[in-house]
Design brief:
The complex is a heterotrimer. Chain B is mainly α. Chain B contains nine helices and no strands. Chain C is α/β, with parallel strands linked by helices. The chains are: A mainly alpha, B mainly alpha, C alpha/beta.
Chain lengths: 218, 240, 243
């Protein structure tokens, strides 16, 4: 079926964009939970646990997302589990994003001066109390800018799931291209849609980080 | 259901993996060289150039940084024929990777330039150097030193990100692995081997950057080669 | 019974002993000033007393608690021992009232109205009743330090430790902090102060301890120590301060 690219093509791209957003959001939520746990264990856990997490982060940061995705999609199905593309996509994106986000958040926790821990210590607070009331609220503020910036990476990363035929924005573009043979128009539109999703996030991230710099300089 | 791993059939395809690895090194190596050149030029434009050129540079950077590499690869591959350039998948891939890295490295270089105290530039100009000479002889190396860790981090992302160009069948490691997978049906083993090669490549590249930093910064306080994160960052455990 | 008793405590880094067999006894209502050059171990000793640093030998008895090498559960001790730091260490994300009420509320489960009342009382005590809603970065260094003292007081400590609390302050701001501490001393609080303010040590502390190379070199009534130092080290240490 050959049709030409036009307004009638938009629904399929919007459908794809919706799945890009769903995928990004699920990845962010899942990776956020793991990253918080990993970041805390990386700072406070016993040494073997810290090394284990450091090793995980190091290994995943040295592996392409695409390979993780293929491992989850093709590889694990041979272990007797069938992983539908959505599951493989969320699992591999989460594994990947966690390795970066946990590192970012660890940096934010470690950026809180040692004296803040000591002051809380001297006030007889327990470790969970120190984290809950003193350290994490401060680390959270520092982390906002980098975290929103990383959200942009997650959105862009979801595009590789097109290569296991998960229909998100990029895959929708490929499908549309197969129907219209107008790749330039199609992928330009796809790029524009990514830009519309990502640019506000990038802008907000920079605003948050710029704002921080302005405040600390006064 | 127990699954027995058999690496034999996969390892029999070693020549394919070797070819793929070499192609990945060539592909990302060229992408890195061209990309850094673009990045440096764009950063200089952003710091020194006229306002209208700076606007274009900003637009380029923002467009690249807010769209996925894979879509950029498709655009270059499918789009260039529109302006009469019929290029192979491999060449398109190099161009896409170069322009992608160019945008990211431009911002990194710029941050480095801005970290150099104004007094250094003034000192250079006071000695009669032109602005470009000042950049070349006074600014670049110290600026590079400031941003070296960020830059090498970006280069690692470029190396690993180059895997997506298998989508246009440009020759590289992931494409080679996909072929082996389709021949052996040993998906798990194949992609584990590919992953291991990528991990090794990453460390080899990082080691190279470390050597470069030694050479560039005259052994004085070089950006330390570290298996980042593998060692606890000297963070003492806070007592409960 | 002494409020604080250090029994031959030791803390070493390899061969270097920053605390080399310290014995010290502090009676209730005592105000003890600890003086000495930087590196003499005086801050380390203070930090050992509430367990911010681990000791490697000896023991510390403090208001009914005992610290030995390897002692880990220090929370019950810290409920009764206040500490004020050189760099104030207020929590920047909380306002003055929240800084003060946090530990009583979460550590001692004091109900909010009561914690609020205590906060107002201790703020009045340090002369900052009007700053209850301010954030730390809106206060001067001297005011921040007084809030830190108030925060510590709100836990109703039996002993207070002051670690060079005026060292980070401009000279014109030290006075207000020292006045607050002098008032606490007059009210009968048991205190150990590591300080560089010789005049203050002499006036406010009833006892002074001079530390030198990880040991207590000389100690006694402040008046005696400053007017008739026995060791040459103390003499040369306080000489420039007497001008």
């Amino acid at each position: 079926m050959i049709q030409s690219f036009g307004f009638s093509s938009l629904p399929i791209l919007l459908y794809g964009a919706l799945w890009t957003l769903i995928l990004s959001a699920s990845t962010f939520v899942a990776a956020g939970i793991f990253s918080l746990i990993f970041a805390l264990l990386r700072v406070l856990g016993p040494k073997p646990v810290r090394l284990l997490i450091a090793g995980y982060i190091e290994l995943v940061q040295a592996t392409p997302l695409l390979i993780l995705l293929f491992l989850a999609y093709y590889g694990l199905s041979f272990l007797g589990y069938y992983f539908p593309p959505l599951a493989a996509a969320v699992i591999s994106l989460t594994l990947y994003a966690t390795a970066f986000l946990a590192d970012i958040w660890r940096g934010c926790i470690e950026a809180i001066p040692k004296q803040q821990w000591e002051a809380a210590d001297a006030l007889a607070m327990s470790t969970p109390q120190k984290l809950r009331y003193v350290i994490l609220p401060q680390a959270f503020r520092i982390s906002l800018g980098p975290t929103v910036g990383f959200l942009v990476q997650i959105v862009k990363n979801t595009s590789v799931t097109a290569l296991i035929s998960f229909v998100e924005l990029t895959r929708a573009g490929q499908l549309l291209n197969n129907m219209t043979f107008q790749p330039f128009e199609v992928f330009l539109t796809v790029a524009a849609m990514y830009f519309i999703i990502c640019y506000p996030l990038s802008y907000y991230s920079e605003y948050l980080q710029g704002g921080k710099r302005a405040r600390s300089s006064t | 259901m127990a699954y027995q791993m058999h690496f034999g059939p996969v390892l029999d395809r070693a020549p394919e993996f070797v070819d793929g690895t070499i192609n990945t090194i060539l592909l990302s190596g060229q992408g890195i060289v061209i990309g850094l050149a673009i990045g440096l030029a764009v950063a200089i434009i952003r710091v020194e150039g006229p306002r209208w050129l700076d606007r274009i540079a900003v637009a380029y950077i923002e467009i690249i940084r807010n769209t996925p590499l894979l879509v950029q690869v498709f655009l270059f591959f499918f789009g260039l024929p529109y302006i009469g350039l019929r290029l192979s998948a491999d060449t398109s891939a190099i161009i896409a990777i170069s322009f992608n890295l160019g945008a990211y490295s431009a911002e990194i270089f710029r941050a480095g330039f801005l970290a150099i105290p104004k007094s250094q530039i003034e000192a250079g100009l006071a000695l009669g150097l032109t602005r470009l000479q000042t950049i070349r002889y006074v600014v670049i190396v110290p600026a590079l030193k400031v941003v070296f860790p960020a830059l090498t981090g970006q280069l690692t992302l470029t190396l690993l990100g180059s895997s997506v160009v298998c989508a246009i069948s440009a020759s590289e490691l992931t494409l080679a692995a996909s072929k082996v997978e389709s021949l052996t049906f040993r998906s798990l083993e194949t992609f584990l081997v590919a992953g291991a090669i990528y991990v090794t490549l990453t460390f080899v590249f990082r080691f190279t950057y470390w050597l470069i930093s030694l050479w560039l910064f005259h052994r004085k306080d070089p950006a330390r080669f570290q298996i980042a994160g593998a060692l606890p960052h000297g963070q003492e455990r806070v007592e409960a | 019974m002494p409020a604080v008793q250090l029994n031959n405590i030791k803390k070493c880094y390899g061969a270097l002993c920053v605390l080399d067999g310290i014995n010290l006894s502090v009676e209730p209502r005592d105000v003890v000033a600890v003086i000495g050059q930087s590196g003499s171990g005086k801050s380390t000793m203070l930090r050992c007393i509430n367990g911010l640093e681990q000791i490697q030998g000896g023991s510390i008895d403090i208001v009914g608690h005992r610290i030995e090498p390897g002692t880990h559960s220090l929370r019950s001790l810290r409920k009764e021992v206040g500490m004020v730091f050189q760099s104030y260490n207020l929590f920047p994300h909380l306002n003055v009232a929240e800084n003060i009420m946090l530990a009583p509320r979460v550590v001692k489960n004091v109900p909010k109205p009561e914690a609020w009342e205590t906060a107002q009382m201790v703020l009045k005590q340090v002369g900052l009743a009007d700053k209850v809603g301010a954030y730390p970065d809106e206060l001067s260094g001297g005011q921040q330090q007084r809030v830190a003292i108030a925060r510590s007081l709100a836990m109703k400590p039996k002993v207070m430790l002051f670690d060079e609390v005026t060292s980070a302050l401009d000279p014109q701001l030290t006075g207000e902090v020292l006045k607050t501490i002098a008032e606490l001393a007059a009210a009968g609080m048991t205190m150990i102060l590591v300080t560089h303010e010789m005049g203050f040590a002499r006036q406010v502390a009833n006892r002074t301890v001079f530390m030198y190379k990880g040991q207590i070199w000389e100690e006694g009534r402040s008046e005696d120590l400053f007017s008739a130092p026995k060791t040459p080290e103390l003499r040369s240490f306080i000489a420039p301060n007497l001008k």
